[in-house]
Amino acid sequence: MAVKRTIALLTMLLLVLPAWQGSVHGATVSEYQIKAAFLYNFAKFVEWPAAAQKGSNDFKIGILGEDPFDEEIGVIETKLVRGKPLKILRAYSLSELHGCRVIFISASVKSQLADILERLKAQPVLTVGDTSGFARQGVMINLIAVGNKIRFQINSNAADRAGLKISSHLLRLATIVE
Amino acid sequence: MAQFRFQNLTIKNRLILISMFTTGVALLVTLIAILSGAFYATRTATLENISSIARVIGTNCVAALTFDDPDAANETLKALAAEPQIDCSHIYKADGSLFAQYHRQDDNQVHADKAAHNAYTEIQVMLANGLADRSGRHRFEANNLKVMVPIILDRNMIGVVEVSSDLRALYQRLTTVVLMCLAILLLSFLIAYVVSNMVQRTISGPITTLTRTMNRVSRNKDYSTRVESDSLDELGILFYGFNEMLSEIQARDEQLYFTQFSVDHMGDAAYWMDRQGRIVNANAAACESLGLTREALLAMTFGDIDPTFGQDRWRETWEEARARKSITFETHHLQTNGKLVPVEVYANFLEFQGRAYLCVFARDVAERKKLQTQLEQAQKMEAIGTLAGGVAHDLNNILGGLVGYPDLLLMDLPEESPMQGPLMTVKKSGEKAAAIVQDMLTLARRGVDLHSAVNLNEVVADYWRSPEHGKIQQFHEGVSFEINLDPDLPNILGSEVHLSKSLMNLVSNAAEAMPNRGRLQVSTFRCRLDDAARGYQSIKPGDYAVLRVEDEGSGMSEEDMRHIFEPFYTKKKMGRSGTGLGMSVVSGTVKDHKGYVDLKSIEGRGTRFDLYFPITGQMLQAKGATFNIDDFKGNERVLVVDDAMEQREIATVVLRKLGYQVETVSSGEEAVAYMEKGPVDLLVLDMIMDPGIDGLETYRQILSLHPGQKAVVASGFSETQRVQQIMALGVGAYVRKPYSIQGLGRAVRETLDS
Questions:
Q1: pLDDT at B255
Q2: pLDDT of B71
Q3: Nearest CA distance, B73 vs chain A (angstrom)
Q4: Would you say residue A17 has pLDDT above 50?
Q5: Which residues of A touch B156 (CB under 8 A)?
Q6: What is the largest CA-CA distance in chain B?
Q7: Which tens digit of pLDDT belongs to each residue from B519-569?
């Protein structure tokens, strides 16, 4: 019993660590640690088309361009998403990120965004960025800082086009961009 | 104050109480069940409602929690304003910190904080439990319900939502329901009371009727009362049984009454005694015979009523009665006046309900004993009378000559003859002998002629003048003789001679009872008895002329009184006076006159004889003139019929002396044969002839030859049935034997002249 309880407590601590660090003790939790947690949590509020979910044993998240998370991504690397282990891929070329369900588009590839989005068009991939203006350009979820908190914008049209269904709960938290 | 007991209530009240109690308990249980059911159902519904609200909130805040957006959470919570019963709500993060909150009233912040604080521990536990507490928790407080539901995302508890609901409105509604139920309860009680009050009458009504009837029966002892009922239930059976019981009691009462009546009205005394001889019951006759009240009698034992019984004799009697079931013996019972009464006891042994008794019937045999004594006396007298009669008959015939011849001789002798004296002596002796014979005949009760009226006053007066009385007076100089006669004394039918003789005997005895001096009184009076009088003898009711002789002499013992009328029973010196038959003659005379003797005597004080004679309305006959022989002379033909030679001779001499032509025959048959030759002027017919036909038969046969044949009948006896019959046939006169000139002469002359 005591063992079970200890495991449960540890799991909980790991789970909530990002949000906790981000909100209450912002000084000790880095921005990208929070963003990494967000990246992971978004997967829980988005429904991929049934076809996209078949065939793979893991849940791949790709980072396109220069990796801003560095070590911070580690907080989520060991977790499971929808019962599948999480796998982080890093590439500068979109073609290397084949099979990823979520692609974080780094600010470093801002100039090629239109091209990237064009290539990802009609593919069931959730695009996430943290660069001002990305949402308006077609990135589905764009993380922004509001005060000392991380908030996000959602381009629901882009998600609709890709055949992704974003949970209304998530939509309520976000700023919707057309 | 009397203690309340259910058993003491009337059936009516008990029935009402039972109905009320049953109804009350049933209603109370039902209402409690319904109320608690409603209470828990409402609470459960409330809990489910609040839980689902909490879950909705939790779901709606998953994203806000995940992405740390308390504003969004607060916004979600604001939707609770649509639920007025919800006071407040809080959302806690997985680390236990407050994430978002909602309060109905802002100014209630302090309260809310406190609530939040109170919830904190529970939140910590829930968070620690993790998914084990997936279903959430709740807590009912005084006025509110707190529901805590975990917020789960992807199988992880990411927070807890707590919703607090105000229950006061709910409780108020429940209170209203309780009050309504109480009202229903009261109303039901009221209805139950009214209904049971009506229904109980069907049970308690008949029972009350039964109780009243029972009271009436026991009060009035009227067992003819019946309970009216037409019901067929158990009460109907009860009533039927009660009526049956009454009928049986009535029948038994009747039997008992008859039995008791018989016992009370039977002549014999009845006693019931127990083994110790105590009298446990007695009838009315028992009380009456002893002169005691029932109460007094029931306090006594056998020894008190029968002093001749000792303890030993009682025990013997008891054992004997037990062995033989019933025994009879004679004993004496003691009356309250100290008199011992002879009784015949019939004792029956009986056992009843385990106890043994003697049922004793005691019959007063005093009267029976007396009657028995009288019967014995009468039988003795009868025997003597028969003997005397037989002797007297023969003796009378012999005495005929002794009395008759001196008369005839004296008639022929000159007065100066020296034979005059001796002849007179012979005549007197004969007469004395004839008197004894007459006494004996009187005893035999064959000599009294009851055809002539007699007045006792004349009997007394004649006697008083007689030489016999003179002699008695002479002999008893110290005695004063007094008479006290009732001038209005009625006549009686009887024989003056016998009455005179009886009087003489009584006076003689009375005088002799006073050897020195004393007063002797003879009195007569009339006495009317309306009821039978019991004295020495039982006297029938009627009118009587009483002859009383009383003296102041030595009196008699009871023993003497019992035997005084027996012949030859005497206390006097024999030979001095009398024949030994004096008192027997008195008794016989009284009997012949259909009268009674009463006798009272106290030793040393005197004796009183009362002779009761039934009166008659008949007048006295004129007394015959003094005897003159010439008046009776005649010359007619007379046939004397007599079986005794002496009698024939005397009759012949007497009648010839008077001038009649006399023939004699010695039997009835001869007389008839004689008469066949031709009639005579007169027959002198002896009544009793032996052998051959008697006077009556002779006369009958002669009458058939010569109807209207005149006759005189002669006999030593009188008043026999045959004498009466012959008188009825037409015989002119009856002559007592032995014959005297006067008697025979008068009879013959008067018959011939008639």
A1: 92
A2: 87
A3: 9
A4: no
A5: 11-12, 15
A6: 212
A7: 999 999 998 888 777 777 778 888 899 999 999 988 888 888 888 887 777
Let me know: does B100 contact B64? Beta carbons within 8 Å: yes
Residue A57 has phi, psi (to 5 degrees) of -95, -10
Beta carbons of B67 and A8 less than 8 Å apart: no
Q: Does B296 touch chain A (CB under 8 A)?
A: no
Q: How many whole angstroms separate alpha carbon B395 and alpha carbon B500?
A: 23
Model's pTM, two decimal places?
0.45
**Residue A85 and residue B595: Cα distance in Å, rounded?**
168
Nearest CA in chain A to B69: A173
Chain A residues with CB under 8 Å of B94 CB are: 12, 15-16
Residue A8's pLDDT is 47
B82: tokens are 């649509």
Q: B333 — phi, psi (to 5°)?
A: -110, 145
- HEC states along B648-678? HHHHHHHHHHCCCEEEEECCHHHHHHHHHHC
Among the residues of B4-61, which ranges form H helices?
11-60
| Shortest Cα distance, chain B CAs vs residue A13, angstroms | 8
Q: Which residue has better confidence, B367 or B443?
A: B367
Q: What percent of chain B has pLDDT over 70?
A: 93
Q: pLDDT digits over B93-114, tens only?
A: 888 888 888 888 754 555 555 5
Which residues lie closer than 8 Å to B543 by C-beta, 6 or more apart? B490, B526, B527, B528, B614, B615
* Closest residue of chain A to B58, computed from CA coordinates: A169
Kind of pairing between the strands at B733-736 and B355-364: unpaired
Is the sign of the CA dihedral A24, A25, A31, A32 positive or negative?
A: negative
Query: Quick one: closest CA in A to B61, which residue?
Result: A169
